[in-house]
Amino acid sequence: MNNPVKKRIRVPVHGVLLLDKPVGLSSNDALIKAKRLFNAQKAGHTGTLDPFATGLLPLCFGEATKFSQDLLEADKTYQTVVHLGVSTTTGDTEGEALENLPVAVTEQQIQDVLMQFRGDIQQVPPMYSALKRDGKPLYEYARAGITLDRAARAVTIHLLELVKYAAPFLTLNVRCSKGTYIRVLGEDIGKALGCGAHLQALRRTHVGHLVLEKSITLDALAELDEASRFSLLAPVDALLSSFPKIELTDELAKRFLQGQRLALGKENTVLPSGIGRVRVYRQADQQLLGSAQLQDYAILAPERLICTSSAA
């Protein structure tokens, strides 16, 4: 008689891991591998990296997943290598070549073209993307040979810097707003130069205030013992460190965790200047309670609450 296979029991894990995603893995595949290494019950990633891309992929575990949206909204920074003269079906190395044109552009011409793409620009999302139309991602239509009209979207290129030009390869640093497709940016630069282009390489170095230098690879993570592995997890509030902090008394903390809006004007509470998003703690033990909106007249409106016992 065969012995029944024991089901692996996942455990509660809370925190943030900065992963250096390798080339060839989807973001979800990288998440699954990391989740298995921590034997975690719940995890999610914050912003997809294409399989051909590498670099910073913040992973959220447990209570930290409640704040992953903040990183989806954050600015991102990349270093990319644009291959001039060759356009592909996907805008990167995973697609088939569509056109091969000679490259006869100078560095000054490149600098002039780059000026056109700094600041607020309009960008048409690529067909090979996860954006959905009638419940299906666009890449499914693209794989079926169907091209759909897509409306241009406003994005912001905060930084577009030429690092190196060694024809036909163009190395750029890019810092951009959410929703920016670096593949499309590379293609559009190639079109403006009259020779077409696709991305040869893409590496993400920053997501909001999080940096690649503090990340770890899957291979290195797998070699660590359990204690060392868990020591790499940043606390749940690592995703909120850019927001002002508010501390509440035990009584106010209890009401906050019940989802009540609090009028703090008459309380002995130090408030940040202005209004907007804040992170909220219990004063006595500095326990993170969640995020909130500080509104006019010192009204604190709970936003995302955490289970305080889990994130202790």
- Quaternary arrangement of the chains shown? single chain
Calculate the mean pLDDT score and round it.
90
User: What's the total count of β strands?
Assistant: 18
Low-confidence stretches: none
| SS element count, helices | 8
N- and C-termini, Cα separation: 45 Å
- Please write the string of helix (H) and strand (E) elements: EHEEHEEEHEEEHEEHEEHHEHEEEE
Biggest pleated-sheet summary: 9 strands, mixed
Structural class: alpha+beta
Net shape = globular
Query: Can you give the helix content as a percent range?
Result: 10-25%
Strand content: 25-35%
Spatial extent as radius of gyration: 23 Å
Please give a structural write-up.
The chain has 312 residues and is α+β, with helices and mostly antiparallel strands. It is built from eight helices and 18 strands. The chain has helices at residues 27-38, 69-72, 107-115, 138-143, 182-193, 218-223, 226-231, 250-257, and strands spanning 15-21, 43-45, 54-61, 76-84, 86-88, 97-100, 119-123, 132-133, 136-137, 153-166, 169-176, 197-207, 210-211, 245-248, 262-263, 276-282, 287-295, 299-305. Strands 1, 2, 3, 4, 7, 10, 11, 12 and 13 form a nine-stranded mixed beta sheet that branches. The chain is globular and about 70 Å long. The mean pLDDT is 90.
